[in-house]
Amino acid sequence: MELKKMLVRMMERRGLSRAGLAYALGYKSVTSVTRVMEGACGRESAGEFLQRMLSCEPLDLTAEERRNLLSCLDSRELGAENEGLYEAFGYLLENTYRTCRDMVFRELFARQSVRARRDCARLRITLFNCVDEGLSWEIRRAMEKQSFPITIDHYIHSVQPLARMPVMLKAVLPLLHTPGYRCRTVDLPEGGSPGGIFGADAAMLTFEYRSGEEKQFLCFLYGEKGAVTIPLSRRTEAEDLFFPMENIRQINGEGVPGPGDGLDRYLAFCCDLERGHAVYQIKPSFGMEQIPADILISAALDENGRMPERLKGLAPLIENREKNMLYKKKAQYHVFKEAEMRRFVSTGRMADHPALLRAFTPPERARILRRLEDRQMNDPYFHLLFFREGDRWLDDEVTLYEDAGLSIIKPGTDYSAKGFHSETLVVEPREFLEAYKSFFLNRLIRTRCRDGRESAAVLRSLIEEAEKMCD
To answer: Do the beta carbons of residue 186 and residue 158 sit within 8 Å?
Structure first.
């Protein structure tokens, strides 16, 4: 059945005009619906229309109508011809890793007798390419076992097929949020080829000893075939190993405030990301931006009911952030895990609960959830969904801020100035961000999430659970 005929029949059964359907779906004008019906919209618009239709409670689509709708918006409109790319994005977000041990790096460590050198003060590692999960896990294990600090500079040749980029991110995830890790992409000059150091997987290790002595080794890695290690006779910097590049961009943490910068600066950074940008997010449970400002401020007060001096600048930021989230006219998609949301109901703590906040009281929990429900029912731009299989997906917060970048935040962050947290914001290339949005709307939501009605039922049950705790 053609999409236009199917929609006309569906509207006739409900007495809806095109304008009435547009209003029910939260579009500003009938043009958006007309373009979809006439086949004049793009893939992303088709995907957004599909999700609005499936999650629109007043339409109350039948099971047959849902099947027909999915059938009519066929794979060509939804971009499913990029199946390899969609599979790569799916693997990036899944809570699974190819953790086979890469013995090359461990053997290199053993050969240099790192563990036996009690006078080793620091190790600096420079990686060239080395986009391999096994190697990343081996380096992370080595970092966790050593008593001295290890810093890593990772340079990756930027010319990658689009479907390779999610795989690249997945490969560096084990290191992405560790202290002292910087990941950079390198552009070759126009017409250049990935020769020299960027034609291989290589690692340069610089051991610094308390005596002031340094030893450097350059290791070319060949996977199962082993490695060739060359002692360097003179002091060498990473830049000495490759000719001048067009551009070197840091892809993790650049421009992102750290713990020592204060929560006020971090909140201001979040406000700038959220303001005016559509949001496509997966996260174990909601964050501070979804909580009424007065509840947040109350949870930050001391035992005497006063705002600590160091936090007084936060109140205006919290209030401004709330206004922006409530009133901006941009799509906001949030996909949560039911188990984590139930944990919030029972404990009053979010998955990334800030250290400065006490646990929320049962009445506060109920009010927080009721506002989420109100937004879900009355804000056409706000979409809250639940994964069908929550344990299958990363606990990292992964958020696309359209036209701004893809943010990845490690799980369990408490934003304490004494601790360590890290956020990655990937801003290039644009086609990668656009492809992720297409995957989110056309594949993740369609196949991995509960539909609008099921998600609303889960949220309602959470509210009832919280309200029982208030009795």
So the answer is: yes
